[in-house]
Specification:
Elements: H1 13-26, E1 32-33, H2 36-39, E2 56-59, H3 63-76, E3 80-83, E4 100-103, E5 110-114, E6 119-122, H4 128-137, E7 140-141, H5 154-160, H6 167-170, E8 177-183, E9 189-193, H7 205-209, E10 218-225, E11 227-228, E12 232-240, H8 243-255, E13 262-266, H9 268-276, E14 287-295, H10 297-313, E15 318-322, H11 325-336, H12 338-343, E16 348-355, H13 361-375, E17 378-384, E18 389-396, H14 402-418, H15 437-440, H16 443-456
Bound molecules: flavin-adenine dinucleotide.
Residues 45-46, 81-89, 92-93, 104, 124, 146-148, 152-153, 155-157, 159-160, 162-164, 213-214, 218-219, 339, 426-427, 463 line the site of flavin-adenine dinucleotide.
Length: 476
């Protein structure tokens, strides 16, 4: 059921032809692709979701390109899927019925950085890593840091409400979005939110659009809050003999009032992938914690000392404190390259993103191990332990194993809900998790959200097949 495409009707060929003609005429030749070989790379993202080849792709460069594309979609009744960096993990940017893909990476200007007001204005196609560099050059800091930061864009981050390792101390993308310019399929062009620190005027439409996965509006300029860059940063790596002990260390650190910038947890399978990728890691280690603390130098040292004490108490095998930026980068680069390293362990990998209360992390990890044993499907788990946000990766080689993969994933979701967790911490629901939405949310809540969607998009043309289960998609 997991990898089934939602059974949604494709737009009629005559409507598609009209849309192509209109887009060529009104947006312009070089920005409109309709040859199959040019459109192919817009059919998928970094998930296992299967899409259709888009009929036509618009490479937007201006707000007028967005407005025109939405007008053509409306007039011809051809669906449109917004797309930024294409690094999504749940198929959000995957066109499940073909139609138009609206690619926004060409809108990549940082419009403004204002350190005095602590804000920046960016176009939706700005790559997150470039934005970090530009902001930090001004002595400011934009905390959200999905590990895909060299490829994902701020429009995609806002649409997914992306998190990342630093979310534990600093929060997620939503905590930094002050306002957005939004284009509605009905032709409306709205600015919502504010540039000021405070503001409570009207409904919080900005927050509704954050995390709406491209289903309510296309985002244009985004106004983001910045904070001062912490002066000092220290990274600790703790190796432990057991994943349970690692979970205990996280619980003790957080309940004793320590607030590291991030606490990443990696299980034994992940460590094996890192060893295979050339990282010399103690052979006895079954778990790793990668911890960043920030603040002034004295605060960093005090936090590091307390963490070292807790690690000793729990019998850590090894504790390494990165002494300089290059050591720190080496540790973090290994963490960032770990996802592709895990991918090399099997022909297929599906990365699930779930959250449980921190105290329940050990129990979830035990249940995942049991499910893996029962189903024969290998799993490796890592994630943002400070938030209880775990990425459970299912690895398999043969298509015949898919039913077991499906069952194992469904079991994971049941366990997460049973432990009072949530189905997604940062990757969104997209197309892959839509069939499971009902496990967490009541029919009334789902209906209310679908009603809201209809207010923004009465004909269901904007990113169909996402978030809500469709006919033939498992849960209807
Ligand atoms: C190796 C790797 C590591 C990752 N690590 C993390 C992590 O630590 N934390 C995390 O949160 N995520 C992580 N991700 C997931 C992914 O990078 C994020 O979801 C990211 O926010 C997607 O951004 P994108 O620009 O690639 O968006 P896309 O994949 O292009 O699109 C994502 C969604 O946003 C919508 N969208 C895009 N642009 C717009 C727009 N302008 N207006 C309206 N809707 C739009 C699309 O329709 C789609 O639904 C990781 C992915 C990879 C491959």
């Amino acid at each position: 059921m997991l990898l089934l495409k939602p059974d949604l009707p494709k737009p009629s060929p005559s409507h598609v032809e009209r849309a192509k003609l209109e887009l060529h005429r009104r947006v312009g030749g070089s920005k409109v692709l309709d040859a199959a070989e040019s459109c192919a790379r817009f059919a998928s993202d970094e998930s296992e979701a299967e899409g259709e080849l888009p009929d036509v792709v618009v490479l937007a460069e201006t707000t007028q390109d967005i407005l025109t594309t939405l007008a053509v979609a409306r007039e011809t009744e051809v669906p449109v899927t917004p797309r930024a960096g294409g690094t999504g993990r749940t198929g959000g940017a995957v066109p499940v019925t073909g139609g138009i893909v609206l690619a926004l990476t060409g809108m990549n200007q940082i419009v403004e950085i204002d350190p005095a007001e602590g804000l920046a204005v960016v176009q939706p196609g700005v790559v997150l890593g470039d934005f970090h560099a530009a902001v930090e050059a001004e002595g400011m800091f934009y905390p959200p840091d999905p590990n895909s930061l060299s490829g994902c864009c701020l429009g995609g981050n806002v649409a997914e409400n992306a998190g990342g390792p630093r979310a534990f101390k600093y929060g997620v993308t939503r905590d930094y979005v002050l306002g957005v310019e939004a284009f509605l399929i009905g032709g409306q062009h709205i600015h919502c939110g504010r540039r000021t620190k405070k503001g409570v005027t009207g409904y919080d439409v900005t927050s509704l659009l954050v995390g709406s996965e491209g289903t309510l509006a296309v985002l244009g300029d985004i106004t983001l809050r910045l904070v001062p860059k912490p002066p000092h940063l220290m990274t600790l790596m703790v190796l432990l003999s057991d994943l349970d002990v690692a979970a205990k260390l996280v619980a003790r650190a957080t309940s004793s009032g320590l607030i590291p910038r991030c606490i990443e947890i990696l299980d034994s399978g992940t460590l094996e992938a890192m060893r295979q990728a050339g990282n010399p890691i103690n052979a006895g280690a079954q778990a790793m914690l990668l911890i960043d603390v920030d603040g002034d130098e004295a605060q960093c040292e005090a936090q590091a000392e307390r963490l070292a004490g807790l690690s000793d108490d729990l019998g850590a095998l090894e504790l390494l404190v990165a002494q300089d930026a290059s050591q720190r980068d080496r540790l973090w680069n290994a963490r960032r390259e770990m996802s592709p390293a895990v991918r090399r362990m099997a022909k297929n990998k599906l990365s699930e993103d779930v959250v449980v209360p921190r105290q329940a992390m050990g129990e979830l990890l035990r249940r995942v191990a049991r499910t893996s044993e029962r189903s024969g499907i290998r799993t490796v788990t890592y994630g943002h332990a400070g938030d209880g946000n775990l990425h459970v990766n299912f690895l398999w080689n043969e298509p015949e194993e898919l039913p077991q993969v499906d069952q194992a994933i469904e079991q994971l979701f049941h366990d997460v809900i049973d432990l009072r967790g949530t189905l997604s911490g940062e990757h969104g629901i997209g197309v892959l998790k839509a069939p499971y939405l009902h496990l967490e949310q009541s029919a009334e809540l789902i209906r209310l959200q679908q009603d809201l969607k209809r207010v923004f998009d009465p004909a269901g043309l904007l990113n169909p097949g996402k978030i809500f289960p469709s006919q033939g998609h498992g849960a209807c």
